Amino acid sequence: MWFTGLSSAGKSTLARAVYERLSSYGYRLELLDGDEVRKYLSKGLGFSKEDRDDNIRRIGYVAELLTRHGVIALVSVISPYRAVRQEVRERIGNFIEIYVNAPLDVCERRDVKGLYRKARSGEIHAFTGIDDPYEEPLSPEIECHTDLETLEESVEKVLREIEPRLPAP
């Protein structure tokens, strides 16, 4: 499950909630969160398009390995560019794109780290959604509007869509 969307759209919150629910059913799972992956797997990469694409390819590779061994990978990353998301989709096979959609102004209001403020002031450059593009998914399997749905509604939407694809726990 590939959760994509702007910073502060609710990707990590939703992915964790789905993880907790599936875990309670006995599924083998791993959550790959963008912030943690950058700290441990992609340390040293910057935020150029090339570095962002390399980061997504690395995460995609780990997700592929996990799924190949029967572990459900939940990936929560901005992954702003369609082409590299498509590349990962083709590599993984049973890929479910979940667009965690929230308007930019909502994301800015939710931003506990102050990243949007720093981007708007010029302190951070090439920030997705401000001065670097976010290419919305054209046809995601699931779209959650986190500004209009409760967390539980979004979780239920994801679970309804993925249940037919899940193996027995």
SSE topology:
Blueprint: E1 2-4, H1 11-24, E2 29-33, H2 34-40, H3 49-68, E3 72-76, H4 82-92, E4 97-101, H5 104-110, H6 115-120, E5 142-145, H7 151-162
Parallel strand pairs: 1-3, 1-4, 2-3, 4-5
Radius of gyration: 15 Å
Query: Helix count?
Result: 7
What portion of the residues fall into strands of 2 or more residues?
5-15%
The number of distinct β-strands equals 5
Q: Could you spell the SSE succession in H and E letters?
A: EHEHHEHEHHEH
The strand order across the widest sheet is 2-3-1-4-5
The major beta sheet can be summarized as:
5 strands, parallel
Regions with little confidence, pLDDT below 50 for 5+ residues: none
**Would you tell me which CATH topology applies?**
Rossmann fold
CATH class: Alpha Beta
The geometry reads as globular
**CATH architectural grouping:** 3-Layer(aba) Sandwich
